[in-house]
Design goal:
It contains 7 helices and 6 strands, in the order E-H-E-H-H-E-H-E-H-H-E-H-E. The two termini are 20 Å apart. The chain is α/β, with parallel strands linked by helices and 185 residues long. Helix 5 crosses helix 6. The longest helix is centred in the N-terminal third of the chain and has 24 residues. Helices cover 54% and strands 14% of the residues. The protein has a single domain, classed as P-loop containing nucleotide triphosphate hydrolases (Rossmann fold), CATH 3.40.50.
């Protein structure tokens, strides 16, 4: 693989695999792994859920933007963004300048199977029966922003290593032909 000299920013909805893929991808590329949600927790001294509960959505998003601005101005790493952080114009512009963006695109059934029953997700604080409709709303609202990523990789119900290998293949292809937005199936 060619030398990676910029941030690899993983974007996608809750449950798309940004953290699990990101950790393994960072190892394979010999880069540090940074989790955007963990950085928010460190900065706030609270869990993501408590930040959201205490300060509300607007302040949570403002804090997330500040964290992403700092992270996207840093050294090369694999960065798993917070679920909705790529929706912010400032974040997308910084990412275009300083990062190679990879959208881990998942269909609703994959997202649902990965998020049902998980209570650490502030944007899915509802009964399991309502999660699918909430995810569908996020897909409709956020996928147009994610489509601005440099690379699109479909995530499936498969071993994480398989997804990581497909991300690596897509990065290699993009490095050779940056005008082609690779969609690794």
């Amino acid at each position: 693989m060619a030398n990676i000299n910029k941030i690899i920013l993983l974007v996608g909805l809750i449950g798309s695999g940004k953290t699990s893929v990101g950790k393994r991808l960072a190892k394979k590329l010999n880069l540090p792994f940074v989790d955007g949600d963990q950085e928010i927790e460190k900065a706030a001294g609270l869990s993501v859920i408590d930040v959201f509960k205490c300060f509300g959505m607007e302040e949570y998003r403002a804090g997330e933007e500040r964290i992403m601005k700092r992270l996207l101005s840093g050294a090369p790493c694999v960065l798993a963004s917070g679920g909705g952080s790529f929706v912010a114009e400032q974040t997308r512009q910084l990412a275009k300048k300083n990062a190679l963006t990879v959208w881990l695109k998942a269909d609703i059934d994959v997202l649902y199977s990965r998020t049902t029953g998980r209570k650490r997700r502030p944007f899915l604080q509802c009964s399991d029966s309502k999660i699918k409709s909430k995810l569908q709303t996020y897909i409709e609202e956020e996928y147009p922003y994610y489509s601005e990523a440099d690379i699109v990789v479909e995530t499936k119900n498969e071993a994480v290593e398989n997804t990581v290998d497909r991300v690596l293949k897509a990065i290699r292809a993009f490095q050779q032909f940056p005008e082609n937005k690779e969609c690794a199936e």
